[in-house]
Amino acid sequence: MKLPLNVKLGIIAGLVNCIAWFGIAKALGYYTIAVDQYRYFVTLILLCLGICGAVYYERKTAGGFIEFKNAMKIGFLYTLILGFFLAVFNFVYYKFIAVDAIDYFLNEARRTMEEGKVKPEDIDKNIEVLKSYFGPFRMMMSTVIMGIILSLLSAAIFRKKNPIVPCSEN
């Protein structure tokens, strides 16, 4: 079975993103929030390049024509595959690689809030929100939302309907 280009690109982008995430974490140290910022930047670049590249390639192979819905499907599938890889790696990263990184970030946030004279009940509420920040579901959803926006833009830019409409038989 031959996989479509957007599926192959999604798998490659997922692997590249995971390797880049691990490399950045290793270079900067596992206990810095800058790792997540750089990872989001890499994800955004891979989404832009992958979605635009897959839609453009599909348009090129279809004789220069692609409909909006087909372009959207291509971008969305690419995004789902990339998001899945990131969600799995997020789980692996915080469960096995940087096991106590989340606790470190939460303790730093608690200390900062206590110094800022935040009410104790607000601190606990904010800590719960911060815990959800590091979850795999959030990782997948943020990637999917960015991917949908970029897929819409790519589909709008690259769409071009085929002027030859097949005749219907009466």
- The ordered H/E elements are HHHHHH
**If you compute it from the alpha carbons, what radius of gyration comes out, rounded to the nearest whole angstrom?**
21 Å
Give the termini separation: 38 Å
Q: Helical residue percent?
A: over 70%
Content of β-strand: under 5%
**Total count of strands:** 0
**Unreliable residue stretches:** none
Largest sheet: none
Overall mean pLDDT stands at 86
Molecular structure report:
This protein has 6 helices and no strands. With 170 residues, it is mostly helical.
Task: Give short descriptive properties of this protein.
170 residues, mainly alpha, 79% helix
Concise overview:
The protein has 170 residues and is mainly alpha-helical. 79% of the residues lie in helices and 0% in strands.
